[in-house]
């Protein structure tokens, strides 16, 4: 079974890469990808943090014409692709059900990094039923659409590999949580 630290690592990797220690997490991400059977030969190598910041901004914040891959559930679950739409409301409802009230300073509650951090908390607390529901009813409904948009933007290898890693990790986590529930039923 994957650990909360695994989800926290991929969550951190989906935040703006401003921490000078950011490149140090790449070996952890690469090992996690190999554990999932992904071929990521050198994809997680980060030689220049400034280049990664520029790429993050291009992909997830702004570009001259539009943001290629907004990392928010509401963009992919709302018919009009607006922020703070249906996906945002769904994320907040799950957070509140778990007893959390997100404080929005910076990113919105439906940002991919926050949702991955939420899954880490649920896993850590042993709340596997809620984790399974969150994955099936929310995260895995929008994340594949986000990953498609990300790949269409032709990201650098780091973000392409990170996108694939998150999808593999969350799909495997859903399977593990479902099988664990069946064993104890």
Task: Write structural notes for this entry.
This protein is an all-alpha fold. It has one domain (4-68, 113-183): TorD-like (Orthogonal Bundle), CATH 1.10.3480.10. It has eight helices and no strands. α1 (4-13) runs antiparallel to α6. The radius of gyration is 16 Å and the shape is globular. The mean pLDDT is 91.
Query: What is the CATH superfamily?
Result: TorD-like
Low-confidence stretches: none
Discrete helix count: 8
Mean pLDDT: 91
CATH topology-level fold name: TorD-like
What is the name of the CATH architecture?
A: Orthogonal Bundle
Backbone structural class: mainly alpha
Number of structurally distinct domains: 1
CATH class type: Mainly Alpha
Strand content: under 5%
Which descriptors apply to this entry?
185 residues; 62% helix; single chain; TorD-like
Q: What's a concise summary of this model?
A:
The protein is mainly alpha-helical.
How is the topology of this model organized?
Blueprint (H helix, E strand, L loop, with lengths): L3 H10 L12 H10 L13 H13 L11 H5 L8 H12 L14 H13 L3 H25 L4 H27 L2
Helix pairs in contact: 1-6, 5-7, 6-7, 7-8
């Amino acid at each position: 079974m994957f650990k909360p630290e695994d989800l926290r690592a991929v969550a951190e990797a989906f935040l703006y890469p401003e921490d000078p220690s950011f490149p140090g997490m790449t070996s952890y991400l690469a090992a996690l990808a190999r554990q999932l059977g992904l071929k990521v030969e050198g994809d997680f190598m980060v030689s220049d943090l400034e280049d990664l910041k520029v790429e993050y901004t291009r992909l997830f914040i702004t570009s001259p014409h539009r943001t290629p891959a907004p990392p928010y559930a509401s963009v992919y679950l709302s018919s009009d692709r607006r922020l703070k739409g249906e996906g945002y409301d769904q994320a907040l409802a799950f957070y509140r059900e778990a007893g959390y009230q997100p404080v929005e300073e910076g990113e919105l509650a439906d940002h991919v990094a926050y949702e991955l951090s939420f899954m880490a908390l649920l896993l850590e607390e042993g709340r596997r039923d809620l984790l399974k529901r969150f994955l099936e009813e929310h995260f895995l409904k929008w994340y594949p659409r986000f990953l498609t948009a990300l790949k269409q933007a032709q990201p650098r290898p780091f973000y392409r590999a990170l996108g694939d890693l998150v999808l593999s990790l969350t799909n495997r986590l859903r399977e593990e949580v479902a099988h664990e529930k069946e064993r104890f039923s």
